Amino acid sequence: MAALRRAGGALARFPSTPAILLLVALVVGRPLPAWPDQPADGGPAMVSAVIDGDTVMLADGRQFRLAGIAAPKRPLDRPDDSPWPLADAARSALAGLVLGRSVQLSYGGATSDRYGRVVAQLRTAEGTWVEGELLRFGLARVCSTADDRARVGEMLALEGEARAAGRGLWADPYYRIRSADEAGDAIGSFQLVEGTAARVATIHGETYVEFGADWRSDFTVAIGAPARRLFAAAGLAPDSLAGRHIRVRGWLRSRYGPLIEATHPEQIELLPP
Question: What's the pTM?
């Protein structure tokens, strides 16, 4: 019935830029596992400016967005906007890795986003995987899309290492993993939410994973028909989530209570009971 109604650590704080750059100096050049066959070569480029922790300008005039991650954001010149904690630290770390340097682009899916920015994975000339290093520093979270899922498993593992060590943003309460009961306090933001799914129902092709008894206020994950096919291909049937303890990541919005739309299976992690 509710578904029917719906169908309607040591580096924890990065206290100074010199500390960030020291860390960058220690890890730059350490190779990570080879690219899988999936990503396509996007060619070399030169980074001329760093806008924030996951966005840069290339020397040829293109704006570039690092694929698969979301770093803390700086203000966007809106009256009600304020920087996320550690936004400057994330920008400084990215600058230490790529500013004024040649990088190699690799496409794992969509090559641009709705804002016209180039989207790709990055490696430095020395072979450092840039997305991986920012996740390792604890200065980004995994934020993949249905049309660009390259290396998400590796990125989730690196994020998990940083979270367990309390590095960077994982030491700040602003970025804590929220319980399903807390989800309503964070509408309009990107969050990781954990809880035990109370029930699952599919109405007119859309699946609702519900986490409480009150559909008007409790947290829900919505999985549309196209996403259901991706879930099935990955061996994660949405119907099997009832009673499971899970972590879901995405942008929280209000739709009969707080809701995250899961467009691809990597947004959901199965956790121990």
Answer: 0.83
